[in-house]
Specification:
globular; two-stranded antiparallel ribbon; 498 residues; 19 helices; Amino acid/polyamine transporter I; 65% helix; mainly alpha
């Protein structure tokens, strides 16, 4: 038991950061904020608003974004404290290793693999549909067999149905292209991301400014057609309505659905090792990107649900299609183009972050370092795990439907945030005098509220998401006990027997 819950000292983490097999420090506060905005603004605005408004919350989606944003603010303050204390790759995995021990670190690391991989697949899927919407403006169309995943989930019947297609081919292509860019290097990736971020923020402001003139207040009535709650306990609805498949409906269910859209600030912490002044710059990047994007999200969701009745919102390309429905095809062109750029940057940041989680785990011996710890001698990027990530993301995006992907990633993200909030409380008690360049305010209130809100949103997801999470974590525990614990660097250093 001592071995399973052995913690990694802060001194050892900082010593590893000074070693040769580390990443290049090239990112400042502007680049880090841009990475956060690049990951947050994209699929959340351009894709998930459609599903959440259509299936879960109606016009009350604006409240869903406020609730999800509040949960993220609480978690972000906890992330910022850890990122300033331990400015190394690994994000919540590293924080858990320093506070909760190796077994919990493995669980959260494996959970982050699910979060980033499935999130990237969700984004690639959204990119594909906006690409098809964009070329459709010019009268072009892909063969039907290559336009979507081979099956989908129908909320009205609560069943999976065949789509008559073979795969979502564009999502496979974009995942491959982004993988090539990421192997080349972090500086090039961050520069490309900054250019894309400027473009998509301009498009988002355009949507709010122009769309406001086409709002029909009647579309906001009823404001919350599914109610203001939407909480269930393993398939049994406790508060609010439920759908045909037993899934919860309402504002909280909508918040749980679109929570995925906020994980960009989490990705900022995975790049702490590449920040020039991590103790200062990473907290700035986390909090600034989150606040900027929350304001924009609320604005876009209010405009979208005001332009089009929630039951007529296109779930695949909701924002551009809303402008088509009000008779602005030229705006549809601009928005589809901006959405393509915006979603590309989200995919870039997510696929940039995933290999850094693997890198941290490989340094600890929990996954094979020959693959996941390999850093390219020229580009200084974890190139092998980047390529592997690209392959898995492409296949998931091509074969799994958007509704399944979006809900699966949310439960993993919420679990990660709850654990980070708990880790702040533990570290404050275990090492109260450790240097904290940024301190989370109002402890223990902020971490406790963060844990509670994340758990409420986890129970606002359909019950099958819990089953998928338990299966995924079960697979992870098998890998840990058959490989990770036998190759743990910390265990060998402390003389534990395999």
């Amino acid at each position: 038991m001592n071995r399973l819950f052995a913690t990694k000292p802060l001194s050892l983490l900082l010593e590893e950061m000074a070693g040769e097999n580390r990443l290049r420090r090239v990112l400042g506060p502007i680049e880090l904020t841009s990475l956060g905005v690049g990951c947050i603004i994209g699929t959340g605005i351009f894709v998930l608003t459609g599903i959440a408004a259509h299936d879960k919350a109606g016009p009350a989606l604006t409240l869903s974004f406020v609730i999800a944003g509040a949960a993220c603010v609480l978690a972000a303050l906890c992330y910022a404290e850890f990122a300033s204390m331990v400015p190394v790759a690994g994000s919540a995995y590293t924080y858990a290793y320093a506070t909760l021990g190796e077994l919990f670190a493995w669980i959260i690391g494996w959970d982050l693999v699910l979060e980033y991989t499935i999130a990237a697949a969700t984004v690639a899927h959204g990119w594909s549909h906006y690409f098809q919407d964009f070329i459709g403006i010019f009268g072009l169309k892909l063969p039907h067999a290559l336009t979507n995943s081979p099956f989908d989930f129908q909320p009205s019947s609560g069943a999976f149905v065949s789509t008559g297609t073979a795969m979502d081919f564009p999502s496979l292509v974009i995942a491959a292209l982004v993988t090539v860019i990421l192997v080349i290097g972090i500086r090039e990736s961050a520069t490309l991301n900054s250019l894309i971020v400027a473009l998509k923020v301009a498009i988002v402001l355009f949507v709010i400014a122009v769309g406001a003139f086409y709002i029909d207040p009647k579309n906001w009535t009823p404001f919350a057609p599914f109610g203001y709650t939407g909480v269930s306990f393993f398939g049994h609805t406790l508060f609010g309505q439920s759908g045909a498949g037993g899934e919860p409906l309402g504002v909280l269910a909508g918040a749980a659905m679109i929570f995925f859209a906020y994980i960009g600030f989490d990705s900022v912490s995975t790049h702490a090792e590449e920040a020039r002044h991590p103790q200062r710059d990473v907290p700035i990047g986390i909090i600034a990107s989150l606040l900027i994007c929350t304001v924009l999200y609320v604005g876009v969701s209010a405009v979208l649900t005001g332009m089009v009745p929630s039951d007529k919102i296109n779930i695949d390309a909701p924002v551009s299609d809303a402008f088509r429905q009000v008779g602005l095809p030229w705006a549809q062109f601009l928005i589809s183009l901006g959405a393509l750029a915006g979603i590309t940057s989200v995919l870039l940041v997510l696929m940039l972050s995933q290999p850094r989680i693997f890198l941290a785990m490989a340094r600890d011996g929990l996954v094979p370092p020959q693959i996941f710890g390999a850093v390219h001698p020229r580009f200084r990027t974890p190139y092998k795990s980047t390529v592997l990530t690209g392959i898995v993301v492409g296949l998931c995006a091509a074969l799994i439907p958007l509704r399944v992907l979006a809900e699966l990633v949310n439960i993993g993200t919420l679990l990660a945030f709850a654990i980070v909030c708990a880790a702040v409380l533990i570290m404050r008690r275990k090492q109260p005098d450790a240097p904290r360049p940024f301190r989370c305010p109002l402890v223990p209130l902020v971490p406790l509220l963060g844990i509670a809100l994340c758990l409420i949103l986890m129970f606002s997801l359909p019950a099958e998401n819990w089953l998928r999470l338990f299966v995924w974590l079960g697979i992870g525990l098998v890998i840990y006990f058959f490989y990770g614990r036998h190759h743990s660097v910390l265990a060998r250093a402390r003389g534990y027997n395999a």
